[in-house]
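Materials and Methods. Structural model of TonB-dependent receptor plug domain-containing protein. The 897-residue sequence of TonB-dependent receptor plug domain-containing protein from Pseudoalteromonas porphyrae was retrieved and submitted for structure prediction as follows.
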Amino acid sequence: MSFINSTLGIVSFALTMPIYAQQAASDDKEITDSRYETCDGQDSHCVKNIEVIEVKGEKLNPISMGAQGVYTLDRKLIKDYRFGNGNLNDLLGVLPGVQYGESAYTAEQVSNIKPAEVSISGANGRATAYLIDGVSNNSNLNNVAGNTDRNLLQDVAGHSQEVFLNLDLIESIEVYDSNIPAKYGNFNGGLVQAQTRKALDKLSFGVSYRQTADDWVEYHNYYSPDFDGSDILDNAVFQKRDFSTYISAPVTDKLGVVAQFQYLESQESLEQLGALSLQEQINHNGFIKFDYALTANDDISLSYLFAPYEGNYFDVNARNSDYTIEGGGTNAALTWQADRSWGYINSQLSWRSSENSKNANSAWYTWLNTAGKSWGEYDGSINSLEGGFGDIKKTQQTLSAKQDFEIPLAKVLDGDYRLSIGYSLEQQTSVFDRLEDAIVYNGSIISPMVDCAGYQLDCVETQLYRSIADLEKELGRPLDLQNNDDFLLYQSNIQQTGQYFQSRQVTPKAKAEAQVNVFSAYLENQLEWQNYSLTLGFRYDYNDFFTNHNLAPRLRGTVSLFEGDGKIVLGANRYYASDAINYKLNEAMLPTHSEVRAIYQHRPQQWQASLTNSGYRYVYNDLETPFSDELTAAYRHQLFGGTLELKWLYRDQQDSINRVRGTNDLGEAILYGANSGSSEYQRYSLSWMATYDNQHIEFNVSHASNTTSADQFDGETRTYINSNDYFLNFSYDDNELVYLRSDNYELSSRSVNDTYHLITRHDMELEKQDFNRPIIANLSWGGDFGNWQLSVYARFNGAQDVVYATGTTKSVNEATSICDGCAPNRKEYPVYRIEKRPSFWLLSGSVKYSLVVARDYTMTLSFEGENILNKRTHQVSPYTTGVELGRRFWLGINLDY
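The predicted structure was written out as tokens:
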């Protein structure tokens, strides 16, 4: 009820603000009448008759009135809804059906520079195509598991985008969720296309500074039911600064240049095992573009973007766990646009380079929480964690060339035909370089009498504060451990308990490289006849890894009603995925192998190959390319000066690549690729958006469902000998397995029955349903009133089942012996928990005040507030201790010429 009341309040506020009733000259004009009138003969300029042309115009709003399912955010909307870091993804949530990943609302996000992932049309972030001036910004170096755990063993946590584009660079954004033209391909989610700003015909420049800090943030601390009050949560100490400058100028009467630079930095002190440690993130955006008018009908542009990213992190639950992630990239593009009497041509050459690398300690230890290794007591864990997963460097290089043609054809039976054709060539090279062996130690054994015999890293001996002889001399008698007092005295005298590891997994230093060549072509014919339009097209894609010839039909059409005020939109389309290089790179990587050692006369022996199988390889043979079939229907109507849209969207994902366990002829463990996976997405949405002279308002509410087939999951990881003993049914990496806890509440006994499932991280990502909130609603408004610019944005997130990290581990004993002379093996795996997250809603807004400070110089002061009403986001599970973000704001100043 509070959400409804607040929503109605915002609507009332927006509608009662002064709206200049007559809409201005439109970008979308229609000639409604043309006639000649006799002019006044007394007028000296009167010749005979004057032609009077009446033009009916409507101001553009984000909802398209064409057949394409596209929403357009212009420069005004971009400026009004810029909150937080000012990244492209931060803006997309105002549109219907766009959902954010869980990381968008965590306490870390207030200091994080990396944008939250978004889902369009039910797909995860990397399934959406991102374009900057027609050049792809998609990264195939991303790992979805990085959304849950940034510190990965076999990979580097990345992002679906190669570079994080600053909103100050962008003139407009087009977001497609359905009926996407055949011109675009190699994705099975949505499409986001950003157009950068062009050089102006007069000199303009500016500089801006924005900042937020911990003093400007409200934190909410929540404690688990069993919290004893001993360790009170400390809030993070941080500051985030954003400096930006730009210049746009004509160089000659035909050549213009626009350049921009941004420096975004975040420094945060987080609690790590009871002490504050510093995390730092830095992102640069350097951009320059030249626009040259070669002739009246030929334009050439040359652009260069440099946007590196660096983050220095640590694992809050582990000692000596500092690591650095370097990402971002560079791209350059040369574009030629030509307008001829027979049609329009767009030609483009581009080069892209990106990196996603990590520098970390090369060994990870899961010690038992005993004397000398007791830092795990801080978070109540039975283990004490230490170290990292080694150095990895990943790079991606892409060369592409493409041409697009738009050709108007002759009229046939009073119908207008337009032909669109084009092709593209792309070569992409990816490299995965593990720069050193990475070793994961698991299965520590307590051994008070152990003699490490030179093994200093993976074995510790028992150490006493005072020798036994000194204790016995003080007692005046031998120490009797059967005596309770003597036993307690001995226990308190232990400085370090001896323990050693008897098993480890080694990922060898290795370099893998993959190259994929892609050819694409499309043809689309559009017919407009009276009140009807129909577009039929096909897109062809081929890559030399899957070697599939993919032909995707694209069909969409409209029927205009009520003298053009209403429009029915229908569509049936197919979209093919494009991440073949990831699979090819996986095939080239060397597997992890297991090593064990026995103990003899309290001395650990040499490491040797385990009796069990080594790690696994990937094999992808004779696979089909995953695709998504789409059906959509919408009705749009001009209402109250805006556009009302009712939309139904259905996506059927088929031939998704799942993993099948097996072995090859050499007995090696293999994860074979198969096309057994599938999923379905369905959405109903209601939207209304309007743009007036000095105001704009947008409203939408969506109900979505997203289901994944059981075949997509890896499934059970264990084979049971009896109800208690089992063995793993495959050679999984230790870091790939987690426990997922689910609870059932028994009403009769008023008890909770908990169940622990040992699953792969791959399955946990599918189980998370990260982009599967059933109900999402948005209401946003912005307006200019003299020197003041105001904007308000409210978002409602429906309840859903989510996966919470508990920060604890669960210990298991394997039924099989790992080597002769080895003790029964025990391993530790992190525990996650499924819980119902309640619904919540957030209100954000901005206030800007502009004033002229000198001739042609304007200064703008800005305030941006997020979660202004200090609402809960329910990121902390009811059963764990943690911090949530409340109210927070930015302050800024701009100086423009």
